[in-house]
Amino acid sequence: MGKLRAAQYACSLLGHALQKHGASPELQKQIRQLEGHLSLGRKLLRLGNSADALESAKRAVHLSDVVLRFCITVSHLNRALYFACDNVLWAGKSGLAPRVDQEKWAQRSFRYYLFSLIMNLSRDAYEIRLLMEQESSACSRRLKGSGGVSGGIEPGGPGGPGIPGGGLPQVALKLRLRVLLLARVLRGHPPLLLDVVRNACDLFIPLDKLGLWRCGPGIVGLCGLVSSILSILTLICPWLRLKP
């Protein structure tokens, strides 16, 4: 499935490049047809994915962390609805239901896809926040144990123990330290980093299809290809998949 998705978005990116460089209309048509066949093949292979997403939502309901439980459950429910709309689209494109309004169902499917990605990114942001707090507390304990100034990586507020006084330089320093802390957390947790990048790349696809942010077929193809490669990487190396 991941390879088909990567091939589809590679065709989208290639088609954009061919159009930009003035390739022959016949070649561009062949690439578009190949992309369409790959898309239809993916829809066929996803016929049972709604049930899988519902089962994943049932398992997520039992998570102890309320924020993770909400984000993951809602994400899976939206994915189930997205796949259901995708099945209707497949029936329309394959000729089984020729009267299906494909434009309407495509818009519905991308809306559910967008909601699912928003929930995924919300979950990522929550996990990053927890890890940053843990890392900051650990640094504070290490500094106290070594006789350094308390406060860890994150400086105190204006007039606090980390940085005396206030003003723009202190705000800039606090921001820089937060960015460094974020980089350390993501570097130390590759599954979370991959999930953030993959969801961020996927986000451009429904935004473009729904007309909320037109970024063009080139950007959509590139983001879809990067996301697909990362998905394949998590299949090859299961430890890179974010859990739960």
From TrEMBL:
Q: Which residues cross the membrane?
A: 219-240
One of the protein's GO biological processes: regulation of peroxisome size
Q: From the Swiss-Prot or TrEMBL record, what is one GO molecular function term?
A: protein homodimerization activity
Q: Which domain of life is it from?
A: Eukaryota
A UniProt-annotated Pfam family: PEX11
- In the UniProt record, which is one GO cellular component term? protein-containing complex
InterPro entries from the UniProt entry: PEX11
* Recorded coiled-coil stretches: none
Q: Which UniProt keywords apply?
A: Membrane, Peroxisome, Peroxisome biogenesis, Transmembrane, Transmembrane helix
Q: Among its keywords, does the record have Thylakoid?
A: no
Cell compartments where the protein resides: Peroxisome membrane
What broad class describes the main subcellular location of this protein?
membrane
Q: Does the keyword Transmembrane apply?
A: yes
Record's protein name: Peroxisomal biosis factor 11 beta
Gene that codes for this?
Answer: PEX11B
